[in-house]
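FAQ: What does a ligand-bound record look like?

Like this one, built around S-adenosylmethionine:
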Amino acid sequence: MVDVAVLVLPAANRVYAGSAPSLLAAELAVLDALALGGRLSVPAVEVLGGVPYVTFSGDLDAEALAVVSNASSLYAVFEREGGVLRPVAPARLERWDEDLVTIPRYSGKTNEQLTRLLLNLTVAAAAGSGAFTGRKLRVLDPLCGRGTTLNVAALCGFDAAGVDLDARDVDAYVHFFTTWLKDKRAKHTSRRHGASTTVTFAPDKDAAKAGRTQEVVVVAGDTTSVVSHFGKSSVDAIVVDLPYGVQHGSHSESGLRRSPAELLPTALPAWTSVLRAGGAAGLSWNAKALPRAEMIQMLEAAGFSVVTGDGFAHRVDRTIDRDIVVARRPR
Ligand SMILES: C[S@@+](CC[C@H](N)C(=O)[O-])C[C@H]1O[C@@H](n2cnc3c(N)ncnc32)[C@H](O)[C@@H]1O
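The answer part, i.e. the structure of the complex:
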């Protein structure tokens, strides 16, 4: 049993306007429950030397270190002994350079750290600690925009699939991703069939020959068509940032501004069907446009069981209070 202190990524405080340490504590508590069977003490925010850390105690074996290391806004991990902090090398999932998720900048982009937080909670609900120790999962973003979830999932070594109504966003994503792969001299192929593009990639020729490839499939289409594109029970996790019901920059089509309450009744049956039994869906949304209790009711009516509590709500701006929920499709 060791005492552990986790330092929060400085950039996270800008993203979450000061809620980053408490969000990290909430994330670690849920990851512990879903992936480690609740073997860590309840994480707390503690100020050490004037800087906020998240602290807890537990047995930091290889499995627990893999889970803790992947927390979305983790900067550094330390073992604590009295007043001394001893650095521990984290075991992160990242397979590619981080600029895959930081280079894209556009109006309406979902923050990449929030996306990693949602991905972490969702894959933990779908696959336990295996998600952090090399089990290859397939992650779908059924409202993928210009691909933040796809990039974050690919960064972690997962396969990814995405759908968006806005064909310009899908084209911009494919262009960005294939250019990025070229710049990184990664071995890759890109095939287009109608509205669907499949990119297969590996770090180099040897990895490709040995079958250590990843795949991203992205489709321009309505989210209700996910089953016809990907098949029933074909994904382990759904990670999605719902339209906020407010206008972003130049996006003016009514479909892009729809509130989550309008979209979910038709989308949820399709999402349930594309998800494998035991898989999980993680959603972030504007709680000013749809109260949390109504979101939970909709998920339960669609057959999901909610596995996260209410520690993740945070203010984004005057019009958006963002919240997160993760729910499992029963086996
Ligand atoms: C909050 S944005 C997602 C942004 C994305 N995570 C990113 O970082 O680029 C929501 C997306 O839902 C898409 N959308 C809205 N209704 C849709 C529908 N019925 N089918 C597919 N996509 C839809 C919009 O085009 C928009 O890109």
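Follow-up question: can I read anything off the structure? Yes, for example: Residues 245 and 259 are 4 Å apart (CA to CA).
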